[in-house]
Amino acid sequence: MSTLIFATNNQHKVDEIRTVIGSTFNIITLAEANINIDIPEPHDTIEENAEEKSSFIFKLTNKDCFGEDTGLEVEALNGEPGVKSARYAGDGRSSLDNIKKLLQNLQEIDNRKAHFKTIISLVLDGKSYSFEGICKGTITKELKGVDGFGYDPIFVPEGSTKTFAEMTMEEKNIYSHRRKATDKLINFLSNKQS
Ligand code: ITT
Fold this sequence. Notes:
single chain, 194 residues, alpha/beta, Maf protein, 5 helices, 24% strand, binds inosine 5'-triphosphate
């Protein structure tokens, strides 16, 4: 198996996916591939933005690669922030700003159901494939925990009483959307090899 470039600038994603992949496959980050670029995310769906990341890096390098896009979809907000998860509070705002806006919008609302959705888009030998991972859960009323990133301090996955930010990365990986999508990627790559 040749090396796969992971088309992301988010080191948390790299750490989480590397923990799942272990030494089965070799992945290198954009930084390790000496690619210093902010990949555009111009589309209206998580699927299209994931595909944009992998195809963008494939066009640049002509190498096998994958990207992923993730969104938090909140039932009572008709799926928002969804594809806009990174910039919910506006361009250039922090994760804390995004969280504050979300909690504000859910202030009077009892239905706290939400899920994370990750789409991994792979380009292998010039062909595209995609893998989905969903993690259902609920949004808390206040922030809890200091680990993880993004919306982790306000998301409790089904089957746990802790937020993702109260978990170690290994615990988060038991439940997480990203791990589920990564499992499918590993399975696909393993079958290709055999
Ligand atoms: P790349 O595009 O470089 O991969 P990014 O951070 O821009 O990295 P996304 O476009 O997928 O990643 O951003 C989605 C938003 O959702 C962003 O605000 C993240 O902080 C948040 N997010 C993604 N995965 C998450 C997770 O596992 N837990 C909590 N928040 C997450």
